[in-house]
Sequence to fold (653 residues):
Amino acid sequence: MIRYAEVALNVSFEEETLTYEIPDNMKNLQIGMRVEIPLRGRKNEGIVIDIHRIMPNHPTKEIIRQVDKRAVVNKEQIELAKWMSETYLSTLGEGLYKMIPSGRKNKSIDFISSIANEKLLDLNSEQSKAFQEIQSKLGSESIHLLYGITGSGKTEVYIHLIKEVLTNSDKSVIFLVPEISLTVQTFARLENVFKNQVAILHSTLKVSERFSSYISLLDGKKRIAVGTRSAIFAPVKNLGLIIIDEEHDHSYKEHSTPRYHTRQIALQRCRINQASLILGSATPSIEVFYQAKVGKIHLHKLTKRAKTSLLPKIIIHHKKDNSELLGDELLHAIKDRLSKKEQVILLLNRRGHSPLIYLREEKKFLECPNCTTHLCFHSRGKAICHLCGYKESISSIEKKYSNDLEYIGSGTQKLEEYLLEKFKNAVVERLDQDSATKKEIFFEVIGKLLEGKINILTGTQMIAKGLDASMVTLVGVINANTGLGVPDFRSNERVYSLLTQVAGRAGRADLKGEVIIETTNTDHPVIQLAKDQNYEKFFQFEIQFRKDAYYPPYCRLVRFVVRSKLEEKSKFSIEEIKKEIDLFLLKNTNQKIIVLGPAECPFYKIDSNYRNHIVLKTLNLTILKNFIREKIKPLKFHKSVYLEIDFDPMDLL
Ligand code: ADP
Ligand code: ZN
Fold:
């Protein structure tokens, strides 16, 4: 009798899987292996998720080739992909392909070996309390928020709990951090304590190395997985504990189908495995803190720094629009630190040299030809679009506009030039997307900072996270108001957490830290709340706004974004969706659903695609999901049109 394989492909079909015949020479084909299959006259790859002998009622083709000698996904992952397809309305294959290492990176890099403790530190009383409370819940499904101020020693609590899981059970651990740079730090710290138990999963490894890391978890040879977002799918054996550090970070949301949030996957895996989840942050996401407040998540607080009793002092300075790049107070403070051989971090959350190029003759700012945004002036004579990457040389722009250009505003490159000019003897380094084009550079610079070889480190938000450099005593934030004008319901949360995170880099050890925030609007509530360094006060402010404006956690959001290079097709398609929504609402008048739009997205054009959106606010996602599955997914649009459906979007831009 012929055997058949159900194969899941990494595409958005209506069918979940396609059926293929298994040729006689593939006797050892197993569920979880990848295969090459013919599809519409082409070779394609898919993952076998079932093997059976039920003849389908349509003609079938044979599998061409078996890609793997062993299964690369396990049963739990297949179950999880099924759950994802119901939750995010994606296909099984789209879910499964998020789980296995992919990409084409073929060069691996060496990391700085961090100066980490070999042993566990003794926990202080707050840490012990949190540890004991969480420990008592290990072995059953439980969700915890470890809300601890910057430098309070959250990592040490995690490590003690991991030790508990590893020594007193046969379970495994997944440890997630928001950035690759932090994976390396975390890996070094964990590997020191748990020798040969830690597998690192991230995209700067060669695919082959990533695969062997991945397989070591699948086989249970290693019991701790460390990585960024996608490591939430790590195929560990017998999952007991998941840690999501800096849980508020936006990198935990995936930006292509299925658009999952790491926290949601973590919750589901904890449900399946009776495991514990720890969410850690100094500035928890509003949703998570709300859940903790209403008692759905266990809340554990660390209110003191581990190594010092002092939090940095925060000073706000008013900055006039056209004044010098740095104010006198900040300049003075930098001079003072340099003379004491202490280190300075300066955050300016704008890459490039000058964000705007003014065309004097035309009396307007230069825009990207492909996007609704301005071109930014970058050093070495380039104008660059930060949305699509479009580049044009300044000389060619000058030819077009009769040399009459003016550069307005400041980015990190200008700041770096300015600092080099002002502090001739200082070692100044800059970290942003343009300088750290390779991760090697990032690690090199961070390494130099930790070794005390840098006096001033400047950069974008890249420098705000996780750095534990004991000689940094001054943090300056330039143009802190950047980001507050963004028309998005999460902009307050984002700015507050960035300011808190970067402020948290100052004075982490014996030396007292100081933070100087320069901004044009000193009165903005978020700036004032950041000054107070009182997250709970910020939460009270923000939750009221969310309630009044009816935003999460008071509702769930679903966002439809239609994009097309043809403007009218984009407009037409979003109207088609609107029609279906209107029909649905007529039939379901009992549902409290609020429809925003259709409207042009705030970034209307990106990479020559015209983007229109509709946002739904609802209390009952299940009914909406059924409607989307039955009425929206089957809609046939013009071939230039792409529809993104995003549940619980992180921004509406
Ligand atoms: P967080 O992640 O909460 O910002 P970290 O875990 O980075 O804080 O800890 C901050 C610093 O305090 C680190 O240098 C860490 O080694 C140190 N530390 C943590 N716990 C203790 C402790 N119990 N005793 C001494 N030092 C500690
Ligand atoms: Zn562009």
Residues 108-114 have pLDDT under 50 and may be disordered. Residues 121-124, 127, 148, 150-156, 306-307, 468 surround adenosine-5'-diphosphate (ligand 1) (CB under 6 Å). The two ends are 55 Å apart (CA to CA). The chain has 17 helices and 28 strands.
